[in-house]
Input
Amino acid sequence: IWYEMVYDYQEAALNSGAYIPILYGVDAIHGHNNLYGATIFPHNIGLGAANDPELVYDIAKATAEELLATGIYWNFSPALSVVQNISWGRTYEGYSEHKEVFETLTESAIKGYEENGVSATAKHYLADGATSNGIDQGDVDLSEQALRDIHLTPYIEAVNAGVDTVMISYSSIKGLKMHENTYWITNVLKEELEFKGFVVSDWNAIHQLEGSYIEQITKSINAGVDMLMEPQSWKDAIDSIVAAVNTDMISMDRIDDAVSRILKVKIERGLLDDPYKRLDIS
Output
């Protein structure tokens, strides 16, 4: 059923005016957990306790194989949250409170996916595990030095490992939502760290930005977000992007950069050669 769904999406994409296949992604964060009969593995908090790079690689590889069997080539994993407050309800998503554990496991997770055919996602950028009082999607009140010393470390590891995508956090830094944070997305991630993949928003996250919908679109894309995860509003998102470009709210250079980054990943995953491919595990 999963493969049939992805197949139908590809059919629709290839019969559109662009003739470009989609890159379909899911949250297979501890195995392909939405697939009946798939192997379910421990969450990151357990893998961090084990702190075994080979185990993390093998789990990512096994997950990649089950994803490929359903025609899915993009996984929203691994979560790189350096958890600083145990009261945060998503502590299980992070390997540890210590950045050293991420230095050990991040590369293994990403290569476990990508060396076996699935694009990985480093998330949620940046410092989602460091919000004040552990409030989910809250605000991070740390100095830039603290952010760099602790919370940027896993992303440096991820970029060096060749991660295909980075997902932005719902949270904010000193009151500025990450989805409109040009400094951390464009200046640091893309320019300083030389990240060459694409940046994706989290589920409906741009709706938390102030202003009208076209203003939310404009703020996020101009900040460096390359792909919008707008499951219900995707048609409005397309219309808003076109309108923003036509009124010079978003430059064509920014659009060209986003599109080239997305196409790069699709090409490297082989989707332009065979949009319907899947792993035969029979």
Notes: The radius of gyration is 18 Å.
